[in-house]
């Protein structure tokens, strides 16, 4: 299994937008993203705007967004 990359919140948001998500709102230091196509089966995700996202948080967001390590390694 490939190693999980270290990403900032802004980097993860750009990756999610490339995979069919769009920003809906920003509240404090968190950005809420919804799938562009609501019937796609993808979940809504919240991304913290931190310099470095903790591995457990990153894995949870990736799981909800249906992404694998190879998808975020772009």
Task: Work out the count of structural domains.
Answer: 1
Class by SSE composition: alpha+beta
- Strand fraction equals 15-25%
Largest sheet: 3 strands, antiparallel
* CATH architecture assignment: 2-Layer Sandwich
Task: Tell me the quaternary state.
Answer: single chain
Strand order of the largest sheet: 1-2-3
CATH-defined superfamily: Hypothetical protein
The gross shape turns out to be globular
Mean pLDDT: 89
Q: How many distinct helices?
A: 3
Order of helices and strands: HEEEHH
CATH fold-level label? Metal Transport, Frataxin, Chain A
Describe the structure in your own words.
The protein is α+β, with helices and mostly antiparallel strands and 74 residues long. It has a single domain (9-72), classed as 2-Layer Sandwich (Metal Transport, Frataxin, Chain A). It is 34% helix and 23% strand. It contains three helices and three strands. It has a three-stranded antiparallel beta sheet with strand order 1-2-3. Strand 1 (21-27) and strand 2 (30-35) form a beta hairpin. The chain is globular and about 30 Å long.
């Amino acid at each position: 299994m490939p190693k999980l990359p270290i990403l900032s919140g802004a980097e993860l948001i750009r990756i999610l937008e490339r995979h069919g998500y769009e920003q809906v709102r920003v509240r404090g230091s968190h950005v809420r993203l919804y799938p562009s196509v609501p019937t796609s089966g993808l979940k809504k995700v919240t991304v913290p705007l931190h310099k470095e996202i903790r591995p457990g948080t990153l894995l949870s967001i990736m799981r909800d967004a249906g992404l694998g390590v190879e998808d975020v390694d772009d």
